[in-house]
Amino acid sequence: MASPPTPNAMFLFERGMQALQRHDYQGASRQFTVIVDEFPIADGLADRARVYLDLCNRELRDRTDVRPQTVEERLTAATAALNDDEDEHAEELARSVLNVAPDHDLALYIMASVQARRGSLEAALDFLRRAIAASPDVGAQARHDEDFECLHNSLDFQMLIEEAVARPQEQLKTYRKSRSER
Hints:
Layout: H1 7-21, H2 25-38, H3 45-65, H4 71-83, H5 87-100, H6 105-118, H7 121-134, H8 138-144, H9 155-180
């Protein structure tokens, strides 16, 4: 008859589940491996840990086996990495896009986000300026993006965003005026 799980096994399982929910498959895998190796007779817990360990291993394998090739694939992967708080991976992918498309607005925006998260405010502003120059609507997105919260009190950030938001409005006014003069 299997014994009930020990408090240590339960603690490891909870930590593994928390890591899994954060998509930290490496961290979750470590917790579940300890349960499987050190608590193999815990009532059902080791079986559940094995299932989650298999899931982690599959996710880790899938992430390493598939390398994004196209610009779109790299940007999608960079966005996913940024959303998973994998800033180094997001930066690596965004830089690979900028190597072939130096003015790509989304790659520049991702780089600005990474720099802002790191507290490199000047670098973040520089990348954001370049992203907005490539696509002014990026400014409206940056205004509400939590990644740029550290810049919200910056006068440079506020001016950059205001100019970006105003630019499409001015373009719309110019377009409407040219249409009415026809």
